Amino acid sequence: MTAVRRGEGGGAGDVTATRRSVCGLDELEHHGARRVTHVLSILDPAWPTPAAFDRYPAHHRRELRFHDAIEAAPDVILPERANVEAILEFGAQVAADHDRRLDGHVLIHCHAGVSRSTAAMTTLIVQAQPRDDEDVVFARLLEIRPQAWPNLRMVGFADDLLGRGGRLVAALGRLYARQLDRQPGLAEERRRQSRWREVEHGMNSRGRS
Predict the structure, then answer these.
(1) Per the structure, how many domains does the chain have?
(2) pLDDT tens profile 14-35
(3) Separation CA 51–CA 41 (nearest Å)
(4) 3-state DSSP assignment of residue 109
(5) For residues 169 and 135, what is the distance between their CA atoms, to the nearest angstrom?
(6) What pLDDT, in 10s, does the model give residues 170-188?
(7) Is 147 helix (H, G, I), strand (E, B) or coil?
(8) Residue 78's domain is classified under what CATH number?
(9) Which of 147, 108, 114 is nearest to 127 (CA)?
(10) Of the candidates 9, 3, 7, 5, which has an alpha carbon nearest to the alpha carbon of residue 137?
C-alpha cells in the first residue's frame, strides 16, 4: 500500500493521504481491519459477491464483472472500454469524497490481484497524477503490488481515455519485460492463458527506454 500526497503529480485529481491497495480474493479478510473507504471489485461474471465485505466498515463499493482475458473466445466476456470508463468514474468518486475527508483507503481486488486489479490501479494512478511519466506510474504500481501483470486490453483503453498517446502501453511493455526477467517460466504460463500478445510485448520491449 502507498500514500499519495498533494503535489506528487499535480492536477485536479490528486488525492491527499489516500492509501492504495491491491489484493486477491484470498486476501480480502486481511484488509477488513485496514479502514478501507472505497472498494473496486472486479469479478468473473458468475462469481458471487465476496462475503468478506459484510465484515468491512461502511465503505463505497463498485462492482465490475468480466473475465481476465485479452482475446475473444467462446463464453469469455472481455473487458471493454465502458468498463474502464466505469473505473475512471470510480476514481472521480474517490477524489470527490476526498474533498469531504482527509483520509481514505482505496482497495482494488480481482481474483488473484495480478491482472485486472493492477490494470485498474494503473488507471487510477494516471487519473490522479496526470503529469507523471508512465514509467513512474508503473514504478508506483510495483510498490503497491510487486507481482503486477496488468491486463493489456484494459491498459490500452485507459491509454486512449486518458490521452496518453500510446505511451502507457509502451511503458507496460517495459513492466512486462521486467517481470519476465524476474520470473522464469512466466512467459510459458501466460502463453497457456492465451496471453501471448502480452508476452511478445514484453519481449519486444527489453532494453527500450
Answers:
(1) 1
(2) 444 478 999 999 999 999 888 8
(3) 12
(4) strand
(5) 10
(6) 999 999 999 999 998 999 9
(7) coil
(8) 3.90.190.10
(9) 108
(10) 9
Query: Closest Cα to residue 66, out of 190, 141, 154?
Result: 154
Instruction: Kindly give the pairing relationship between strand 18-23 and strand 2-4.
Output: antiparallel
Domain span at residue 51?
A: 2-205
Contacts of 19 (CB under 8 A, 6+ apart): 1, 2, 3, 34, 104, 105, 106
> Does residue 167 have a pLDDT over 80?
yes
CA Rg value for the chain: 16
**Share in percent of the chain as helix, strand, coil (round to 5):** 45, 15, 40
The x, y and z cell numbers of residue 89, run together, are 468514474
CA dist 3 and 104 (Å) reads 10
Query: Looking only at Cα atoms, what is the longest distance across the chain?
Result: 47
Note the pLDDT tens digit of each residue in 140-149: 999 999 999 9
